[in-house]
Design goal:
The chain has 190 residues and is mainly alpha-helical. It is 45% helix and 8% strand. The strands form 2 sheets. The chain has a 3-stranded antiparallel beta sheet with strand order 3-5-4. A two-stranded antiparallel ribbon has the order 1-2. A hairpin with a 2-residue loop joins strand 1 and strand 2.
Length: 190
């Protein structure tokens, strides 16, 4: 009992510090320093929640730019089941998924003979990536312009406006947030 009492006491104190106090402190600092990000970087319009800048969404209508595929859980872009598929290059399931995704892209834009950018057919490590590469946006540009009857030049300018550069100019690569781009696309008046 002499040994057990300090062990139990230490367990309770450390559990309270690491399980309650530290998470509350980090959340509090986050809410003060980065209020938008700590609240999920939500995008709302007229009081209606449209999505988050931080979590990808499924766009399959050809009039929209399509997101990077998701491999999260039993349904796409599930924020509670973040994680990749962990399928290696020799896995037949990965090969089948890639062929299916390439076919969907070709079916939506049969005249497009450009090489398909890898980020349009492979999921990210989290399965929730809200961004595509500028090359992936360029690949889809002609389809979206044709369906929406927008000039490719005008649409390319919109994509460029929504292209984010590498963080601090050195971390990562240029990227396009698909939700923000598609919302801006819906605002274009003919």
């Amino acid at each position: 009992m002499k040994i057990l009492r300090p062990l139990i006491g230490s367990f309770i104190v450390l559990s309270a510090i690491t399980g309650i106090l530290y998470p509350l402190a980090v959340t509090g600092v986050g809410k003060i320093a980065y209020p938008e990000q700590a609240s999920g970087s939500l995008i709302q319009k007229d009081g209606k929640l449209l999505g988050s800048k931080l979590i990808g969404q499924n766009f399959s209508d050809p009039k929209y730019f399509w997101s990077r595929p998701s491999a999260s859980g039993t349904f796409s872009y599930n924020g509670l089941a973040s994680g990749g598929a962990n399928q290696g290059p020799t896995n037949p399931a990965l090969k089948a998924a890639l062929e299916e995704r390439i076919k969907a892209l070709h079916d939506a834009d049969p005249g497009n003979t450009k090489p398909v950018p890898v980020d349009l057919v492979t999921a990210s490590g989290s399965g929730l990536d809200p961004h595509i590469s500028p090359a992936a946006a360029e690949y889809q540009l002609a389809r979206v312009a044709r369906i929406r009857d927008i000039s490719p030049k005008q649409l390319r300018a919109l994509v460029e406006k929504h292209t984010e550069s590498a963080q601090f100019g050195i971390l990562g690569e240029a990227r396009v947030n698909v939700l923000e781009l598609n919302l801006a696309l819906d605002q274009i008046k003919k």
